[in-house]
Specification:
This protein is α/β, with parallel strands linked by helices. Helices cover 41% and strands 14% of the residues.
């Protein structure tokens, strides 16, 4: 089996890049030949912000220069709209949705519509020059990408959604048929499971995640919720492991949040060693939207207890009071934190249960599901092509006779098949 795997050429150390690399490496371990494909040419100038969405879309059309080589493969996989270039060709296309742009557009409100206590936090950040604006100047690039994501999904042979939330987004906002969508959860690297669970320590509040660099992404990731929770526990030690190029937010947290320290753009393969001593601590997932949340699984793999808003895969795996808590407000999150802090026996039980849940997200499980899906898609594609090649229509040669009638000349057809196309059979005469 040969798979052409389309990536963005911008190699970063966070987010989708890691899950893509993990999938590729594990597929190779399972005997799949994978070619990494990168577009190379920006087709339009991206200096105008309102054209950035279009520019990102057109970027992947530059893959046409590699068309001859890519079409030799059995299947193409990309992320959301990235395989759009190859949708018109016969080769089967799978598109992987770790989230939907429309999903987080729906989830993130304008700042003026946010609750007053959170609005005050954003105003403080602006007054301290951590952010320069309270809302994005334009959402046009995001809206353009949202539209093209659903177009690509509608034309792909199969869609992989990383959670039920993503599947529901595709159905609700993109009108994608449910039977085109397969939910396959993401996985985390094997090294997360290399060492046994640490001994329980003094509980802390832990945040781990990629928070982006602009006001929209910070609202998406619930930075205001995180700050509010932190401020409710001034004496409890807090650790934020954040990926962002905006260091101002990290400095602000250290200067304004008591008992807080941060790790800034820490290498991903080193984060396990940082989290390991925090077994039994509380992991905070404050996002307004996630398609999956790798950070949630990573934290649980080290015995951290999640308190999570119902985003990404959290509603599918968290059982209240067993391996974590789902919350709908900061007030409820604060209550659950106190509940865990006041009961060490409960904390130990939930820590172990969280770890056991994380074992369901080992990379080999993901690889096997992907291989099975690819085999099914390739088989269906080959069967379809064979059916078309052997079907009635390509075997017709149309012949105009003197009276102006069109008579089909059918070879190797039985009468039962002829009955299926009565409009093409002239007077029941078959040559």
């Amino acid at each position: 089996m040969k798979i052409a795997y389309i990536h963005d050429d911008k190699k970063i150390n966070t987010g989708a890049h890691h899950i893509n690399n993990l999938m590729v490496n594990k597929l190779r371990e399972h005997g799949v030949m994978v070619k990494n494909v990168y577009p190379k040419v920006d087709l339009i100038d991206t200096s105008r912000i309102n054209l950035k969405g279009v520019a990102n879309i057109l970027f992947f059309y530059s893959l046409l220069e590699q068309k001859k080589e890519i079409l030799k493969y059995d299947l193409i996989q990309g992320t959301t709209y990235t395989p759009i270039t190859f949708l018109p060709f016969k080769i089967p296309v799978v598109t992987h949705f770790g989230s939907t742009t429309q999903g987080f557009l729906q989830a993130v409100p304008k700042t003026k519509h946010i609750e007053k206590n959170f609005l005050d936090i954003w105003k403080r950040l602006k007054n301290n020059q951590v952010i320069s604006e309270l809302d994005l100047k334009t959402k046009k690039p995001l809206l353009d990408i949202a539209d093209i994501e659903f177009f690509a999904a509608s034309k792909a042979n199969k869609i992989i959604a990383t959670s039920k939330i993503v599947k529901n987004d595709l159905i609700k906002y993109g009108q994608i048929p449910s039977n085109k969508i397969c939910v396959i959860h993401n996985a985390i690297e094997d090294y997360w499971f290399d060492a046994p669970l640490a001994v329980m320590g003094k509980p802390k509040l832990i945040f781990l995640g990629r928070i982006g660099n602009d006001i929209f992404t910070w609202k998406l990731k619930g930075v205001d919720r995180l700050i509010s929770i932190y401020e409710n526990f001034p004496d409890l030690e807090k650790v934020s492991i954040v990926m962002t190029i905006n260091k101002k937010i990290c400095t602000w947290l250290n200067n304004h949040i008591p008992s807080h320290k941060y790790l800034y753009n820490f290498p991903k393969d080193k984060i396990r060693n940082v989290l390991q001593p925090y077994r039994g601590s509380i992991f905070l997932l404050t996002s307004r939207y996630e398609g999956f949340s790798l950070s949630l699984i990573e934290a649980m793999s080290q015995g951290l207890i999640p308190i999570a808003f119902p985003v990404g895969v959290a509603p599918e795996i968290i059982i209240d009071g067993k391996n974590g808590f789902l919350v709908s407000s900061v007030k409820e999150a604060n209550k659950r934190i106190k509940e865990i802090l006041d009961n060490d026996d409960l904390r130990a039980e939930m820590s172990l249960a969280a770890y056991n849940t994380s074992l369901k997200f080992r990379a080999d499980i993901l690889a096997k599901k992907l291989v099975n899906l690819y085999q099914q898609i390739i088989k269906e594609s080959n069967t379809k092509e064979k059916f078309i090649e052997n079907s009635i229509i390509p075997q017709f040669s149309l012949e105009i006779i003197q009276k102006g009638n069109i008579k089909p000349i059918i070879t190797n057809m039985d009468l039962e098949k002829i009955k299926l196309i009565p409009k093409l059979v002239d007077s029941g005469t078959v040559n």
